[in-house]
């Protein structure tokens, strides 16, 4: 279908309901049941920007900002932008070693229940087959329907297929290329790779000018609807700029169309959003590189990357430790959230060794402790101990140093899980939240503990008892560099 045919389909589907393009109606949508069971997803940032592999995934913007490190690097490495522009990386993006099945094997072993490949990033290159633009991976570069291959491989492993669009920011993303003699210049028409390359917006001003035009917003709506129609994602993720006022009527329309499509498919679907871009309750709130200090009574998700300084593969990644990633997963789930962990494949389609190491360590930990994560729920307390995250976005620039007194709690599968964020060196665990409680303190634990085991050490001798200070577990043979889970069974 062409753009007009897609837009007519959007109108027809909305007309049939049950969802209407109003917040009141969209708030009736249900979070998919599986999202509460599968608590770990894998994000992938992979595209043309993976070819230069310099600094981060914003290379397509930064290489046109005069005086920036990326601008200088580009000239020194590839030549002037008017002779070798961003579009000239596309033939180099051949993805010759890309194997979707191998990716899914790694992701599923790590305990992931869903995937979130980026369908289109700010650079405007579509990683899927499209009739709206020839600048897509099925016609150029890899000449493969990357999104389609990932969906097929994910479903074969029993994983939910989701996807994201970062197209909104393309309105201004290439605009700096117009400021000097580059390959981004007039005439420029709708459908061109760099179009519209407008002056960069004030990202914090939700009414900034020049704002996206009707022509651009209809293109955004049609591109997103094409993904929905052709790939039927179970969740849809938008990056940050859709909170701009100009997007609001189109966002509501897109959400109504998408939720109605889910109704037709017999599936609950939902949009993940940032920065209050949608009315609370009409989608899943997203926290980028951060989280909450306390448990929330609603589903939410944090997206973070294996590296602090980039979402895509580069030659200068500042990797987090496997331990930090595991602790982030635990802390997030204990507070009712899901972790969307980003992996950045190389341009040839291989998973870098640094990413692979984290996935392998995560797989080993999840094989032992996964029951405390997947299918779990928030307990009456989410945590105890002196160390807590700083609430909000972009709080992952330094690893937290947990102590043996720090625990995170989940419940599920007929048990309560107390996860020691730092395994005590002497194997002596004390969990204050399970102290013997007498009297009228309704906040205290009043249950009867029947058994305590340490996941992964079920055949290791341990002793346990409770007193007024807490639950004491003595397990001198238990040692681990990663968090350790106490499984507590009650009568």
What does this structure look like?
The chain has 491 residues and is of the alpha/beta class. The protein has two domains: 3-372, Glycosidases (TIM Barrel, Alpha-Beta Barrel), CATH 3.20.20; 378-490, Sandwich (Immunoglobulin-like). It contains eleven helices and 17 strands. It has helices at 3-16, 23-26, 59-62, 69-78, 100-109, 146-156, 170-173, 214-231, 248-265, 322-334, 353-369; strands at 40-44, 114-120, 160-161, 163-165, 235-238, 270-273, 284-288, 300-305, 337-343, 377-384, 407-412, 415-420, 428-431, 449-454, 463-467, 470-474, 484-490. It has an eight-stranded parallel beta barrel. The protein has a five-stranded antiparallel beta sheet with strand order 10-11-12-17-14, covered by helices on one side. Strands 13-16-15 form a three-stranded antiparallel beta sheet, with no helix packed on it. Strand 11 (407-412) and strand 12 form a beta hairpin. Helix 10 crosses helix 11. The longest helix is centred in the middle third of the chain and has 18 residues, at 214-231. The model has no long low-confidence stretch (mean pLDDT 96).
């Amino acid at each position: 279908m062409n753009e007009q045919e897609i837009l007519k389909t959007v109108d027809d589907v909305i007309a049939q309901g049950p969802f209407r393009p109003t917040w009141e109606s969209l708030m009736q949508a249900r979070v998919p049941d599986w999202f509460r069971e599968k608590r770990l997803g894998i994000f992938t940032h992979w595209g043309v920007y993976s070819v230069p592999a310099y600094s981060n995934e914003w290379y397509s913007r930064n290489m046109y900002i005069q005086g920036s490190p990326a601008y200088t690097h580009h000239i020194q490495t590839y030549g002037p932008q008017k002779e070798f522009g961003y579009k000239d990386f596309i033939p180099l993006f051949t993805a010759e070693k890309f194997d979707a099945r191998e990716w899914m094997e790694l992701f599923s072993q790590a305990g992931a229940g869903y995937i979130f490949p980026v369908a289109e990033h700010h650079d405007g290159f579509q990683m899927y087959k499209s009739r709206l633009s020839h600048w897509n991976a099925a016609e150029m570069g890899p000449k493969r329907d990357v999104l389609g291959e990932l969906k097929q491989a994910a479903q074969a492993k029993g994983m939910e297929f989701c996807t994201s669009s970062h197209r909104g920011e393309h309105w201004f993303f290439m605009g700096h290329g117009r400021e000097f003699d580059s390959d981004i210049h007039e005439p420029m028409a709708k459908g061109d790779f760099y179009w519209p390359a407008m002056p960069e917006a004030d990202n914090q001003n939700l009414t900034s000018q020049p704002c996206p035009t009707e022509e651009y917003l209809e293109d955004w709506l049609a591109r997103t609807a094409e993904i929905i129609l052709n790939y039927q994602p179970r969740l849809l993720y938008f990056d940050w700029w859709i909170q701009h006022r100009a997007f609001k009527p189109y966002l509501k329309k897109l959400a109504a169309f998408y939720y109605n499509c889910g109704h037709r498919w017999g599936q609950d679907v939902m949009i993940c959003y940032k920065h209050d871009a949608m009315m609370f309750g009409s989608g899943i709130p997203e926290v980028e590189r951060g989280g909450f200090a306390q448990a929330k009574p609603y589903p939410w998700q944090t997206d973070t990357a294996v590296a602090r300084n980039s979402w895509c593969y580069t030659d200068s990644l500042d990797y987090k430790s496997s331990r930090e990633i595991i602790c982030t997963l635990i802390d997030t789930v204990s507070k009712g959230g899901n972790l969307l962990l980003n992996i950045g494949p190389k341009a040839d389609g291989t998973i870098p060794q640094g990413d692979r190491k984290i996935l392998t360590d995560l797989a080993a930990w999840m094989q032992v402790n996964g029951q405390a994560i997947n299918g779990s729920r928030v307990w009456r307390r989410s945590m105890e101990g002196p160390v807590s995250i700083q609430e909000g976005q972009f709080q992952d620039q330094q690893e937290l140093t947990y102590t043996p007194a720090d625990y995170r709690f989940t419940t599920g599968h007929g048990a309560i899980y107390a996860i020691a964020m730092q395994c005590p060196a002497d194997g002596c665990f004390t969990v204050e939240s399970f102290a013997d409680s007498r009297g009228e303190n309704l906040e205290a634990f009043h249950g009867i503990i029947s058994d305590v085991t340490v996941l992964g050490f079920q055949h290791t001798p341990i002793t346990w008892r409770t007193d007024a200070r807490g639950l004491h577990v003595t397990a001198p043979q238990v040692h681990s560099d990663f968090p350790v889970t106490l499984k507590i069974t009650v009568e």
